[in-house]
Batch of 3 targets.
Target 1
Amino acid sequence: YPPARCRSPASISSAELLHALEQGGKPGVDFILVDLRRNDHEGGTIKGSLNLPAQSLYQSLPTLYDLCLAAGVKQVIWWCGSSKGRGTRAAGWFDDLIQERKGTESLQSLVLEGGITGWANAGPAYVEWMTDYDADYWKQPKESRQKA
C-alpha cells in the first residue's frame, strides 16, 4: 500500500480519551475507536473498539469514511501496540482520504499516543475501560508477547 502523505497525523493522549469516555462520550456514536492489531484484541482493548487489522485496512477506508459521514461521527481514533507504526500510518491514510474529499473538515483522524500498551499501563482508571483485560499479558516483556 502507498505510504501516507500525512506523516504526522494529529494525536490524542490517553488522558484526553479517558476524559471523553468519563464525560459520556460513546464509542461508535461520538467517535470510532480502531484497534489495528491483528491478534483480535490480545491482552484486552478499549471498550467499544473495532478490530480492523492494519494488514487489510487500506481497502476498507472509503467505506469507513462513508459510514462516519452518514452517522455524524466526528473522530476516528487509531492505535496498535505503540501507535508508532501501524497506528500512525492508518491515521495518516485516513487523514489523506479526508483531505482528498473536501468539505469534511468536521471529521478528524487521530492516533492514540502510546498505543494500547500505553493505555493498559496507565493505571486502574484506564484498565477499567478495557474489555478482556489480561494483566499477565501486559506484565510480559514486549519481546515475549506474541507480535500483535
Note: The helical segments are 14-22, 61-71, 86-100, 115-120, 124-127, 135-139.
Target 2
Amino acid sequence: MELSKEKHTIAGKEAAEKLKNLIPEELEHYNHIAHQNKAANREAHEAWIQSLTPENIRKANIARNALTRLGIKGFSRHLKDERQVKRPVPAHALFLKERFNSGDMHGMALPDAARLIMREWRELEDSDKQKYYETQGQSRARYAQEVKDIYHRDIDLSAATPAHPATAPAA
C-alpha cells in the first residue's frame, strides 16, 4: 500500500511539473475543456435531479443523514432541489432576521449580536411579538399545504414548535 502511495505522489509531482511548463495557449485549451466538462456535468446532474420525485430526494437525504451518523463517508452532501419544501420559520427567527437586516448590529460580532437580539426578544411584550407569531402561523400553514401537495401526505404540526399561547386555539 505504501508503494502505491509513493507512485501517486510521484505522479502528482510530475503532473504539476508538466502543468507549470505549459505554454499559455495549451493552458487556455485545457481550461476551456475543463469549463465545458464542468458545464456538461452540471447539466447532467440537474437533469438527474429533475428525473427524481421530490419525495425520492427527501428520502435520499434522510438516508444520507443516517449514513453520516453511522460514520460512512461520501454521503454528507444533501441533494439540492428547488422543489423541496422549505420548513416553517419560527417567530423568534423572524425577529432575529428583521433585527439583523435593520443594520443596527453592523460591526458587532455575530455571537454578541445574536445574544443581544435574543435578549430583546425575551423582553419584548406579547403584543409586540404578535405579528411574528402571525407570520409564523402563516409559514406553518404554507408548510403543511406544500407537504400535502408535493409529498402527498398530511403532517401534524401540533408536535412541532408550539404556537404562541395568544394565537393558539382555545381548548
Note: The mean pLDDT is 88.
Target 3
Amino acid sequence: MGTIFNHAASLAVLAPVFGDTYNRAQAANSKEEFFKSKEAASAAAAWGTSIVGSAVQSYGVGALINATGTLSYKGAAYLGSLIFMASSAPGVISQVFTERRPMDTVAVGALARVFETVGLSLFLTWWGTRNNPFD
C-alpha cells in the first residue's frame, strides 16, 4: 500500500511529462510509430524507475517505523519530517540559494517530497506495519 501511495505522489510531479507524451501519441500516425519514439521510451523509463523507487522508499520508511516503535501519528509525522530533512532538504536549499531556481518550481518539488516522506509515514502508521516479520 505504501508503494501505491508513494507512486501516486511521484506521478503528481511527473504528470506534465506523461501529459506531453500522451499528446504526442495522439499526433503520431500509428501506434507502432509512437512506441518506437524516444518519448515513449523516456516515459516508460520514468514510470519504471518511479515505481521501483516508491517500493524501496516505502520499505525503508516501514522499516524505520518498526525499528523505532512508532505508534502515534505525532511520532510518524516527526519521523517523516526527519526523513525529509535528511534526504530532501539539502537539495531544496541548493536549488534556492545555489541554482537560483524559481520559487514556485522549488515549492512544488518540496511539497511532493513532503508527501513522499511525511505523508508516507503517516499513511503507513494508519494502515499498519508488521512489527515482527517472523510472525
Note: The mean pLDDT is 79.
